[in-house]
Write a structure and sequence with these properties.
Bound molecules: 2,5-anhydro-1,6-di-O-phosphono-D-mannitol, magnesium ion
CATH class of the largest domain: Alpha Beta
CATH superfamily of the largest domain: Fructose-1,6-Bisphosphatase, subunit A, domain 1
Number of domains: 2
Number of helices: 8
Order of helices and strands: HHHEEEEHEEEEEHEHEHEEH
Shape: globular
Radius of gyration: 20 Å
Number of strands: 13
Strand order of the largest sheet: 2-1-3-4-5-6-7-8
Distance between the termini: 46 Å
Length: 334
């Protein structure tokens, strides 16, 4: 049973035995994400103070190589998981190919792979607006002790064993699921400890917020245009409120707490939308479903989509169940 004032470390230990494949390995993996999150958080928070926001490859006044924060976060998460020898493979938005970690060594028994978007919401980094990290965890499908292959990464979302995000906002939080509900932990920056602050998070079934980049309106499919007009109509509890941060993690987080729908549809400019199936949409879909919400590409459940490539894009509609179902209805009828 989760309780308030519990630290993330305590929560992980207490809930380890409830996890069906329990061996401590997944707990160690989540612990390593927790550690990297603190380091990245520290760097994100001082971004305005020090001259770290420059072009990757620049040299700063101390003669140190500058890294953009997304490059920094990518390196930090990969290093932490690699050095602690905790996973057999990682794929990242920042890397063209997946990374194999000692997985050809027959003594290497790690069975988890991680897909990660180390710092999502990149357009917000330079302007002091919340960004996030998104992660998705699977068991490998190829045998342990052999090199990981692309098949280990191209698994359907419904095979995820854990997923979550870190939000670097007014407070920093880790929100994650291992398939038994969603829990949120807030960092106390004074002592560097995450506390359980949001046990058993749930999307309200209905909501009044819609989040979409309306600048793309004329390029949207007719079903989405019709649904947006429905959101704006004066009728019943409508018009809804429009809120769009442009950081998926932040928009999702707000909608989960308050009730709402996030949409990044396909458009006449981008036939599959913008967001990536494997390390943006699937983990958010897993969280949404675990929190009584829903995630769809407009017609199908996100987590049932068969992936064909690592950096595949997919239209994404996610949030309060009744709102997503209404948007799907508009898509079907358009
Ligand atoms: P990124 O991975 O390059 O940061 O892009 C993903 C982000 C999401 O966080 C956000 O919801 C979306 O892109 C915003 O896109 P746009 O600026 O086109 O509305
Ligand atoms: Mg991203």
């Amino acid at each position: 049973m989760s309780q308030k004032n519990q630290t993330l470390g305590e929560f992980i230990i207490e809930n380890q035995s409830a996890f069906k494949y329990t061996s401590g390995e997944l707990s160690r993996l989540i612990n390593s994400i927790r550690l990297a999150a603190k380091v990245v958080n520290h760097e994100v928070n001082k971004a305005g103070l020090v001259d770290i926001i420059g072009t990757a490859g620049d040299t700063n006044i101390q003669g140190e190589d500058q890294q953009k924060l997304d490059v920094y976060a990518n390196n930090k998460f990969i290093q932490t998981m690699t050095k602690r020898n905790i996973v057999c493979g990682i794929a990242s938005e920042e890397e063209d190919d997946f990374i194999s970690i000692n997985s050809q060594d027959e003594n290497h028994q790690n069975k988890y792979i991680v897909l990660i978007d180390p710092l999502d919401g990149s357009s917000n980094i330079d302007v002091n607006v919340s960004v996030g990290t998104i992660f998705s965890i699977y068991r490998r499908v190829t045998p342990v002790g052999t090199p990981v292959t692309i098949d280990d990464f191209l698994q359907k979302g419904n095979q995820q064993v854990a997923a979550g995000y870190i939000i670097y906002g007014t407070s920093t939080m880790i929100v994650y699921t291992t398939g038994d509900g969603v829990n949120g932990f807030t960092l106390n920056p004074a002592i560097g400890t995450f506390y359980l602050s949001h046990p058993d998070m749930q999307f309200p079934e209905d909501g009044k917020i819609y989040s979409v980049n309306e600048g793309n309106y004329i390029h949207f499919p007719q079903g989405i245009k019709n649904y947006i007009k429905y959101c704006q109509m004066e009728e019943g509890d409508r018009p809804y409120t429009s809120r769009y941060i442009g950081s998926l993690v932040s928009d999702f987080h707000r909608n989960m707490i308050k009730g709402g729908i996030y949409m990044y549809p396909k458009s006449s400019k981008a036939s599959n939308g913008k967001l990536r199936l494997l390390y943006e949409c699937n983990p958010m879909a897993f969280l949404a479903e675990q929190a009584n919400g829903k995630a769809s590409d407009g017609f199908n459940r996100i987590m049932d989509i068969e992936p064909t490539e690592l950096h595949q894009r997919v239209p994404f509609i996610c949030g309060s169940k009744n709102m997503v179902e209404k948007a799907e209805e508009f898509m079907r009828n358009a």
